[in-house]
Design a protein that fits this description.
Chain A: InterPro entries: AAA+_ATPase, ABC_AA/LPS_Transport, ABC_transporter-like_ATP-bd, BCA_ABC_TP_C, P-loop_NTPase. The structure holds 2 protein chains of 2 kinds. Chain A is α/β, with parallel strands linked by helices. Helix content of chain A is 46%, strand content 14%. Chain A is elongated. In chain B, a hairpin with a 2-residue loop joins strand 4 and strand 5 (69-70). Classes of the chains: A alpha/beta, B alpha/beta.
Chain lengths: 446, 243
């Protein structure tokens, strides 16, 4: 994307075997990752995973317990950040940061905040105040340059009009942008942003995306960011690192990470966007009443949501009518065979001992499902399952933990049912074999 | 309006910071057992309205009525005793107190009578807090502090819960938990919730009704479904980046 600015495409920051312990609390445990030069790297993870602690180690607020943080500047100079004091890191290694809870100088004006950031060059050119007091032309020029640079960034963040207002009077979103501008005034090569989109609405985060992409394109600054707003992370980052309990659990492109089951379980949960998309589709189809729109989505997407959270009631997404429908269809597919057919099975002599709780004496309607469609079940296993009274996908779909253990015992499998996720497969197949209750959607959820 | 007696009604309130008018003629109400949300851009005055309910800053004109009682001029601590609890923007927890002590502060209205029971509920909601029970509030991560602020508000057994950006800085999964929990509390105990959120889509999905605030004025109001479907609202608060 950015070609000229960085010829040196190596990693700007290498984090190796980083550990940080606070007394008995291990905040970061043996963390390794790289941030590429000119790239936007995102650090995500559940609250308390240690993301901000990583930032604090990089910027010298903490001395890491163990590990090495190597920053390579554009000109090839290497710095070991863990050995440097925080102010030297800013000055020499050219790392700048923003804070999770905004730390502007709230009593100073917006412009002054940006001038303070240029303290180092200004001090030099003012001969540590003396020349400045005497009004030397070098200092006057430096001061003019500093204001010019501040103006440049104020224009970028749309705050020129408020340059002379106290920073503390700005609304939250503007303060966030000002913090980024202040960091940029130190001319960093690595910009570390701690939750830059927190407290911003959808529109403002879209603007933030643009600002960050602009910063990278125009200055070649590499960006490392911590963020919970997935519309920011997934849209602009080139590389995502996921932490949980101080350990890396995933590392890769946004798409890889987004679909990593570990990340979904620990962090993302089910995507709301699926629902948003469906509502939009419904609208496109000419349904403007939201309830009707949600009714439209009572097929696949809803099943998926319900199945992903079998214990949670999806009340916030779905009106009662839709829930009732799902519940009844769920009952049709899963509960009924379990609840009703278990009693006859208890007396059925044909079933072998050690069968699962929902075994049947024979296939319903005399027609068993093709169980071999489930990955991991071959003809031999199908026969064994049939012998134990399992003929239908929905039976497998309804298996509880104890049933899985029972089945594994007679199939002589260890952990394979869970590994190959027969239950989810069976659910899918069971659903497909059902007659679709509601009108088909066009386009389909992703 | 729809109910004869609103639990909270704010009538024609104007609030000033010095000479700057932050709220002009705001009229908003919340019926018992309702979830009401207030959406709007940064700087629109949403948090100011939340704080005005608590008398910091005071409304210069207009009236604020809670459960039939005029609380416009009541001191803040007396307002809290009426069982209005707030989880303020920016996690104002007590940084030198432990997690446990912070929660005890929330429960102090009842002399800790229900502490065990209620803290169990909070820990169910945020298991992270239980792990950190003896840690000082100030040493928690940002998101954990947010959980603590919400937990502390819940400990007060509020009749009206004011939540100012509860999702700020929290992981997507936790946001979902919180929204589910609010819905649950609302359904089970009839808790009335007044919610300010940047995450307008999530807030409107959760709420029964919503108000849209622009520059200190309530510009639009209606059922959540209407607002969600309203093209103007969609353009201003729901779209852009979230696809």
């Amino acid at each position: 994307m950015v070609s000229e600015v960085q010829k040196n495409t190596s990693a700007i920051l290498r984090v190796e075997r980083l550990s940080m312990k606070f007394g008995g609390l291990i905040a970061i445990n043996d963390l390794n990752f790289e941030a590429k030069r000119g790239a936007i790297t995102a650090l995500i993870g559940p609250n308390g995973a240690g993301k901000t602690t990583v930032f604090n180690c990089i910027t010298g607020f903490y001395k890491p317990t163990e590990g090495m943080l190597t920053l390579t500047r554009q000109n090839g100079e290497e710095y070991l950040l863990e050995r440097m004091a925080d102010f030297v890191i800013t000055k020499k290694a050219k790392v700048a940061r923003t804070f999770q809870n905004i730390r502007l100088f709230s009593g100073l004006t917006v412009l002054e905040n940006l001038l303070v950031a240029q303290h180092n060059p200004l001090m030099l050119s003012s001969g540590f105040t003396v020349l400045g007091l005497l009004g030397f032309p070098t200092y006057r020029k430096a001061a003019a340059d500093a204001i010019e640079k501040a103006r440049f960034w104020l224009e970028k963040i749309n705050l020129v009009d408020r340059a002379d207002d106290p920073a503390g009077d700005l609304p939250y979103g503007a303060q966030r942008r000002l913090e980024i501008a202040r960091a940029m005034c130190t001319e960093p090569e690595l910009l570390c942003l701690d939750e830059p989109a927190a407290g911003l609405n959808a529109r403002e985060s879209a603007e933030l995306n643009k600002l960050l992409l602009d910063i990278r394109a125009e200055t070649g600054t590499s960006i490392l960011l911590i963020e919970h707003d997935m519309s920011v992370v997934m849209e602009i980052s080139d590389h995502v690192v996921v932490l949980e309990y101080g350990t890396k659990i995933s590392d890769g492109t946004p798409d890889m990470v987004k679909n990593d089951p570990k990340v979904i379980a620990a962090y993302l949960g089910v995507e709301d966007e699926e629902v948003v998309e469906l509502i939009e589709q419904a609208e496109a189809a000419g349904v403007d009443d939201i309830t009707a729109a949600v009714d439209l989505l009572s097929t696949e997407a809803l099943h998926e949501i319900v199945e992903a959270h079998p214990e949670a009631e999806p009340v916030e997404l779905i009106p009662a009518a839709a829930i009732a429908e799902v519940a009844s269809s769920k009952a049709r597919s899963a509960r009924k065979p379990v609840a009703k057919k278990t009693q006859p099975t208890a007396t059925a002599a044909a079933i072998k001992a050690g069968s699962t709780s929902n075994a049947l004496a024979g296939p319903r309607g005399g027609k068993p499902d093709k169980l071999i469609l489930i990955k991991g079940i071959g003809p031999v296993n199908e026969r064994k399952l049939n012998e134990h009274g399992i003929f239908h996908f929905d039976q497998i779909a309804a298996w509880k933990k104890a049933d899985v253990i029972a089945a594994e015992t007679y199939l002589a499998f260890d952990g394979r049912i869970a590994r190959e996720d027969w239950i989810a497969q069976a659910k899918k197949l069971a659903k497909e074999s059902q007659v679709k209750p509601a009108p088909k959607k066009t386009g389909g959820a992703k | 309006m729809s109910e004869p007696q609103a639990l909270l009604s704010i009538e024609n309130v104007e609030t000033y910071y010095g000479n700057i008018r932050a709220l002009s003629g705001v009229t908003v109400h919340a019926n018992p057992g309702e979830i009401v949300t207030l959406i709007g851009a940064n700087g629109a005055g949403k948090s100011t309205l939340m704080m005005t309910i608590f008398g910091m800053p005071r409304a210069r004109t207009g009236r604020i009525i809670f459960d039939g009682k005029d609380i416009t001029k009541l001191p803040t601590h007396d307002i809290a005793r009426l069982r209005i609890a707030q989880s303020p923007e920016g996690r104002r927890i007590f940084p030198r107190m432990t997690v446990q002590e912070n929660l005890q502060m929330g429960a102090s209205l009842d002399d800790l009578k229900y502490f065990d029971e209620d803290s169990r509920m909070v820990f169910d909601l945020f298991p992270r807090l239980k792990e950190r029970i003896n840690q000082r509030g100030g040493t928690l991560s940002g998101g954990e502090q947010q959980m603590l602020a919400i937990g502390r508000a819940l400990m007060a057994r509020p009749r009206l819960l004011l939540l100012d950006e509860p999702s700020l800085g929290l992981a997507p999964l936790i946001i979902k938990h919180i929204f589910e929990a609010i819905k649950e509390l609302n359904k089970n105990t009839g808790l009335t919730v007044f919610l300010v959120e940047q995450n307008a889509f999530g807030a409107l999905k959760l709420a029964d009704r919503g108000y849209v605030m622009v520059n200190g004025i309530v510009k639009m109001s209606g059922s959540s479904a209407d607002l969600l479907a309203n093209p103007e609202v969609r353009a201003a608060y729901l779209e852009g980046g979230r696809h």
